[in-house]
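Look over this entry.
=====
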Amino acid sequence: MARARSSIEALIRLVYAHWKRSLPRINEPCPDEETLAGFVDGLLDKKEAEKLKHHLIKCSKCAEVVALVQKMKKFQIY
């Protein structure tokens, strides 16, 4: 199970890096994958979470990453 999780995490990092490189430039930098994972896990403080929510509204690529991680978590893949 640990090996599968490691492979999935590597895949998420690879997909995230690809998406981040292909993003159209917006006025703010995209958060790193650890911040996005912290958001999904509810580990960000209220101010950070609100800032990220506003970013997700503007950045469809980051929103896709968060949605993917949430789905994986739902099916206990993450």
Q: What stands out?
A: The chain has a mean pLDDT of 84. The helical segments are 2-22, 33-40, 46-58, 60-74.
